[in-house]
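Backbone Fold Data
Goal — fold tokens
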Amino acid sequence: MKNNVSFESDLSKFGIGLFETIKINNDPEYLDLHMDRMFNSIEELGIDINYPKEFLKKEIFDYIKSKDINNKALRVTVFDEGYNISTRDVPYSKETYEKGFKLVISPIKRGNSIIYRHKTTNYYENIYTKKYANKNGFDDGLFLDCNDVILECSMSNIFFIKGDCVYTPSKELPILNGIMKKRIFNICKELKIEIIEKNIKIEDINEYDFAFVTNSIIKAMKVTKIGTKVYSSSNEIFDKIVVCI
């Protein structure tokens, strides 16, 4: 494992690398899905990584075992000079989930870049948006494209509920289709809840009854507000989904 990065690294010079954030709950949750996504991106983006997937998985298990880690967020970063594994606390409490998230529109408009479909270390747009949201009294920011179509939050995917149906931005958009987003699709299929991918414009948010965001660490978090639009604090469909996560 590499803890120092030289200034000659592509990570230092150009921000070229990939990372995954994995919830450790006794074992690393959805590890195969995280590793599949990472190594898919390595191939598609042509990143210079010289070790196989199974080697990295073993290193992750060894790291967890050596440090007796549980209920943490583990980050694994890969780049041209090697890889790094680190952990941080999970900051979300029962009170956080009861309160829910408030979202603000990011000041950054996104174009149609393939880079947004991969979890790269070039993350400044996301960090800027998160800080912008927090500075203005919100929990996160919501990216739009140049046509005001909703994409995703700085660190999560977004879903809406209307009646008995769940809606989410199309996977064809320039977004990172998250591990938990895949899980939500599977849960909806199991529960026979219709889920629709579509282009949702920002002016359409008033049409929905409820909203929530997902990622591997949060799992599913209700959204109580987007800008000035206030959503219901509870929803039967959402409750059914959350029980299955």
About this structure: The mean pLDDT is 96. DSSP finds seven helices and 13 strands in the chain. The radius of gyration is 18 Å.
